[in-house]
Design brief:
With 469 residues, this protein is of the alpha/beta class. It has helices at 2-10, 110-119, 121-130, 145-152, 189-200, 219-234, 247-255, 272-280, 291-299, 307-312, 315-320, 333-340, 342-365, 386-396, 401-407, 410-416, 418-421; strands at residues 24-34, 39-49, 52-58, 69-72, 77-80, 82-87, 133-139, 160-164, 167-169, 183-185, 206-210, 239-243, 260-261, 284-285, 369-370, 435-438, 452-457, 460-463. The chain has 17 helices and 18 strands. Helix 9 (291-299) runs antiparallel to helix 13 (342-365) and helix 12 (333-340) packs across helix 13.
């Protein structure tokens, strides 16, 4: 109860969606882009009535209501709002957010880090909107995540939020346990079933498995727990997402019934049997290419933040990522090693990307549904604008601008799922009025995807320069 009151207090001065708010708006003369069906409509009219799209199409066939407020979008490009399908609100993206990875708790105690995260959630939400991201999927965090979903979905300047609760894990992370752990080690199938029942009481959008494999935790040892988790979740119509970065781990997860893979395979190239397994099971894959570089680059002091991240990322978070500001005697060995041999860190990242990017192109060409996501909140992966670095890497993998935008809209809506997922990701009658208006054409160059003029969330238009001042 105390936690719930704390979160509500953090939002007490934050704007909520006005009850009964409704305005009829007509966006005219712009170019409508529906990436999910590769649709481009010149001289389009999009009619918004309250929080929904009332009509959308060519101006010749879509009339403008006489009582609508007219917004002239001549020379601009209108897309569905972007969706980041892999974020973690319990993490800030700063240097102190994962003490299980690097222990800097003597510099910043973990309870203070979590308190800062909760206090700054309104700011985090708004930074997503500034980046054109109108929906996100939080794929794992403490039980207080469910309260975050409730508040976000009732807040005007916030993305729509789907959540999973604590991760069902093959390993423990006691450094993150403040009484409501984001990661819970499960030791046997019955314990897994019991935990899924506990999660189900909170109506999660997904159940997440953290399938970590090492010499002490081989692939097969955790398979019975994966199977039990999937069976118990599916019995309650809850989908299961799995963190699996090795080919054999990902293969085992899908064979046991997983619905979503939330990372790329990075240890080896995927084989034909794996590709067929994913297509046969209609798996959604979220590649999270950006997160694979950000830990190593941060620790080696070689961080490659994009202009969007520098402009729209939280400056307090970004300021912590300069590891040379930490006193030498307080630096963990992992960071000292990376600083001593930065080229080794960059070489490891290059090798990971060589495999991950090739695998992405293979799976995309085979027809696997790819949903864009960043794993934002991890060290160096910035909430909101990290999505545009993900776009860059997807382009390097060989995806076209239209395919990348499809991954961030229509495909991502499928991963979001549920009733809401069925009404986002495309500009169609009856869908939520969550849109982005761009100044330049993203089909010509996906780098234009961040050239944002304004964002429409729930039928309310926000000029880009009015967000995150």
């Amino acid at each position: 109860m105390k936690l719930k009151i704390t979160l509500i207090a953090a939002f007490s001065l934050f704007a909520v969606i006005p009850k009964g708010y409704a305005e009829k708006i007509a966006l005219i003369n712009g170019t409508l882009i529906n990436p999910g069906i590769s649709q481009v409509v010149q001289n389009a009219t999009i009619v918004i009535d309250g929080d929904r799209i009332a009509a959308a199409g060519d101006a010749k066939t879509t009339s403008t209501p006489k009582d609508a407020r007219i917004v002239d979008c001549k020379g601009k490009f209108i897309l569905p709002g972007y969706i980041d399908t892999h974020v973690h609100f319990f993490q800030s993206g700063d240097l102190f957010t994962r003490p299980d990875v690097v222990d800097l708790t003597k510099v910043r105690p973990y309870p203070k880090e979590v308190a800062w995260i909760k206090r700054n959630l309104p700011d985090t939400f708004e930074r997503y909107l500034r980046s054109g991201i109108t929906s996100v999927v939080d794929v794992g965090g403490p039980f207080w995540n469910f309260e975050v979903r409730k508040i976000a979905n009732a807040t005007a300047k916030a993305p729509r939020v789907a959540v999973a609760g604590p991760l069902i894990s093959s390993v423990s992370r006691p450094q993150l346990d403040l009484g409501d752990p984001p990661i819970v080690k499960i030791d046997n199938p019955e314990q897994a079933r019991e935990f899924v029942r506990k999660l189900a009481a909170q109506n999660p959008d997904l159940v997440k498995i953290w399938y970590i494999v090492d010499k002490d935790h081989p692939v097969d040892s955790f398979r019975p727990i994966v199977r039990a988790t999937v069976e118990e979740s599916h019995a309650r119509n809850i989908r299961v997402a799995v963190h699996a970065t090795e080919l054999e781990t990902a293969r085992a997860a899908v064979e046991e019934g997983a619905d979503v893979l939330v990372h790329s395979v990075i240890d080896k190239e995927v084989d034909d049997a794996f590709v067929k397994l994913l297509t046969d099971h209609h798996i959604i894959l979220c590649p999270t290419l950006v997160v694979f570089e950000r830990y190593g680059r941060t620790f080696a002091n070689k961080l490659n933040l994009t202009p969007e991240e520098k402009a729209w990322g939280n400056p307090e978070v970004i300021a912590t990522l300069d590891v040379k500001k930490i006193p030498q005697n307080q630096l963990p060995d992992r960071i000292k090693t990376a600083l001593a041999k930065p080229d080794d860190a960059l070489d490891r990242i290059k090798k990971v990307h060589e495999i991950a990017l090739k695998n992405l192109k293979t799976l995309k060409d085979a027809g696997v549904t790819i949903a864009a996501g960043t794993d934002a909140g991890n060290i160096g992966t910035i909430h909101g604008p990290a999505l545009f670095r993900e776009f860059q890497l997807m382009r390097e993998a060989g995806l076209t601008p239209m395919q990348i935008l499809q991954c961030a809209t229509a495909n991502a809506a499928k991963l979001f799922g549920g009733e809401t997922g069925g009404h986002i990701g495309s500009i169609d009658k009856g869908n939520f009025a969550d849109l982005i208006v761009l100044k330049s054409n993203p089909i010509d160059d996906v780098r234009n995807a961040s050239d944002i003029d304004s964002v429409v969330k729930n039928g309310i238009i926000y000029p880009a320069n009015s967000l995150v001042r």
